[in-house]
Amino acid sequence: MNVSDRKLFGTDGVRWIVDRGDPEFPLRLAMAIASSFPVGARALVGRDGRIGNNAIYHIVIGGLVAAGTKVYDADYIPTPALQYCVKELGFDYGVIVTASHNPPEWVGVKVVLSDGIEAPPNIELEIESILFESRFRRISWVELKPIERFESAIDYYVKGVKKHIDSEKLKKKGLKVVVDCANSVSALTTPRVLKELGIKTLTINAELGMPYRSYEPTPDSLKELMQVVRAVGADFGVAHDGDGDRAVFIDETGNFIYGDISAIILTQYIAQKHPELPRRVVTAISTSHLLAERYFIDRGIEVVWTRVGFLNIARKIAELGGALSGFEDNGGFAYVIHQLVRDGTMTAALMAELIAENSKTLSQLANEIQKPHIVRTKVPITGREEGRIIVEKVRKHYQGYKTFDIDGVKVLMPDVVFLVRPSGTEPLLRITVESWNQSQAEALLSELLKLVEEAREGLSK
């Protein structure tokens, strides 16, 4: 089965612009999801803080019920909190209405299996098949299950995070942390967890609703957080995306810490804290190859590469029987002692514990890691087929070098590595080039952009 066979599901669920899609689509999608599970299956359902979800959320719940699912409504909840409750409380599956880091006009639907991990491609293909063939199950009105509110989900999740953190050390340290909640559901968990652990916690963008910044935590979108961290003398800042599964850090000087850098810092700490764990990390092909070589492979830690999308990372960890961590370069990080999926609130709490136990500041820890020059860009494309054709042209052009074909094409050249891959969530081609030499990285990026443009011109003829 080829994951590219999917027509709706991308890297992480199904996403669309709320006022441009067919109003019946979320209903049909929900019925297809429920029809792929047995009658009477118990599902925990929640949503992020997007305004567009108001037009979608209850439609999704109605479709699930109509096709025979017993729905427990958690309402506003971070994705990792829902995943944790699905796994720990024995639900048959979960559905989260979220478009994660996409712009606010987008909505989406993600399916979680009973193990708390997103549904794999074969399940998504079955759901698509039911949808496209209209093979929905309809049950008798007398069999429809009542919808039950599940208001204890956040409480249960918060306890689950706190049990992995040494609160006594944190209380003695007296840390100060600023949390940027992206005006979404992480406002319900991260500030609460940190405060209950004894950390002085300040928040910005903590009201649910229209976001004051992009849902995607990037250097450009987090300038306010950088300023606040410096102004209040915080030990660090942490920012989340729209559904709270990413955590991106700002050090005490106001500098942005990239996700693969924070992942190295956290993984080194976990290796000391849990020597019983396998000396292995699982990460997406988009992660810096040069960093992985220097700070993992050269230190005897195995690196296992996967396709982009944390469901691939989580399922690979489960398949291998464990790891020190799973992570992405965008701030997604899994503390596997807690759960195998990325979890922004858990990551924030773990970083706080690390700083409390360490004599060094976050900036000092980050500065100990030599960073390659990484340049990234994205090119709009018409769709997945155009992206596939461009990637194939790039692969052929550089066929003399060692390549990884896990997701798009990653090419390892002397002193420089690049990745070209179609986005799984947006109509974009993502290009990343890394080298220890900045001019070499920029020169190769220019070469790649010319090659991509040639491929696009060839398609238009």
Given as residue ranges, the uncertain stretches (5+ residues, pLDDT < 50) are none
Q: Can you list the strand order of the major beta sheet?
A: 1-5-4-2-3-6
What is the CATH-assigned architecture of the largest domain? Answer: 3-Layer(aba) Sandwich
Give the biggest beta sheet: 6 strands, mixed
* Rg calculated over all Cα atoms: 22 Å
> By helix and strand content, what is the structural category?
alpha/beta
Helix content: 25-40%
Q: Span from first to last CA?
A: 32 Å
Strand content: 15-25%
Count of runs of 4 or more consecutive helical residues: 15
Per CATH, the class of the largest domain reads: Alpha Beta
CATH topology of the largest domain: Alpha-D-Glucose-1,6-Bisphosphate, Chain A, domain 3
- What is the arithmetic mean of pLDDT? 94
Shape: globular
CATH superfamily of the largest domain: Alpha-D-Glucose-1,6-Bisphosphate, subunit A, domain 3
Structurally, the number of domains stands at 3
**Number of extended strands:** 20
